[in-house]
Amino acid sequence: MATLSLTFPLLFLLSFLYVLSGTELATAATTTTTAAATNPAASFIRKSCRATTYPSVCVQSLSSYASTIGKSPKQLVMAALSVSVDRAQSTKTFVYKLTKFRGLKPRVYSAIKDCLEEASDSVDMLSSSVRELKRLGRARGPEYMWHMSNLQTWVSAALTDDSTCMDGFAGRASDGRIKSSIRARMTNVAQVTSNALALCNHFAGKY
């Protein structure tokens, strides 16, 4: 009984501290969630990303641009295109380095070279889209639609380039690591580009 009387207060104290720490963690999580929910820019990004094919990727890739985006649909599209350009350029550099590997089988090397061309085209198309968005300015009517049509066409073309690169490695069982590394990067580029196109289309529909 003496042992029990000494142990019970200790157990009670430990239980109390456990509950208290859990409450503090829950409070901290709630505070963080509430802060994010009350941030107008963050809320605008989350709401806009619902119209995309990959909303979680959309939110993750654009969150760091929140202060620049604010609640501007145009800045949202600009940020989405900038993300696509950066990731397409990074992937292009990665694929280029693969062409320098020694001992590649001819068909694997050919697929990598083809993918490099597609990645380069994707970077060019997305970069052109960024420039076209900047040219919109105060354009309205036919002029606005002309610029926006160019923008949408180029982003769509970039998305096709991403898909074509990945198709080039279909069924190539002997280049597993190369195929998986390229597909992983191109898949991410394709996802952010798809999201950028969706945001472009949504933006275009407002005018």
TrEMBL record:
InterPro entries: Invertase/methylesterase_inhib (IPR035513), Pectinesterase_inhib_dom (IPR006501), PME_Inhibitor (IPR051955)
Leader sequence segment: 1-22
Entry protein name: Pectinesterase inhibitor domain-containing protein
Keyword Signal: yes
Lineage: Eukaryota, Viridiplantae, Streptophyta, Embryophyta, Tracheophyta
One Pfam family linked to the record: PMEI
Keywords: Signal
Keyword Zinc-finger applies: no
Residue intervals of the Pectinesterase inhibitor domain: 40-199
PANTHER family noted in UniProt: PECTINESTERASE INHIBITOR 7, PECTINESTERASE INHIBITOR-LIKE
Organism encoding this protein: Rehmannia glutinosa (Chinese foxglove)
